[in-house]
Amino acid sequence: MDYKVYPNAYYNLSADGMAVHHYYIDGERIASRVNYLLPSLTSTKNENTASAEDLLQRLKDSDLPTEIELDISTDRNVVNRGLYYLHNDHLGTSSFVTDGDGDPTQFYLNFPFGEIEERDSSRPLKKN
């Protein structure tokens, strides 16, 4: 089953675990951050879970690095996929999207009445 949940204008979540946080200035969306929730958060199954002490002991026993990676969110259940900036035209329509490094990821060419004439995209963020 595929679905999306839009609890408010600042956040949406899809069935595959993609969470998008939107950032606004004066009511105009300027950026969106794409995160993927780990499957344990999006699963609806009732599963037995280990205690916190057991998980901490397993982590200590493993040979995982103790340093925090920069591309992982401070929330341990979220993998950060990037920040995307929306570049609006004079009508407020997002016609160009760049990633956090300034590299173009999406381009939209609109008809005068607002319908999208042409699109080009290479990344997971979709203007929604």
UniProtKB/TrEMBL annotation:
Source organism superkingdom: Bacteria
Protein name: Uncharacterized protein
Organism from which the protein derives: Bergeyella zoohelcum
Organism placement in taxonomy: Bacteria, Pseudomonadati, Bacteroidota, Flavobacteriia, Flavobacteriales
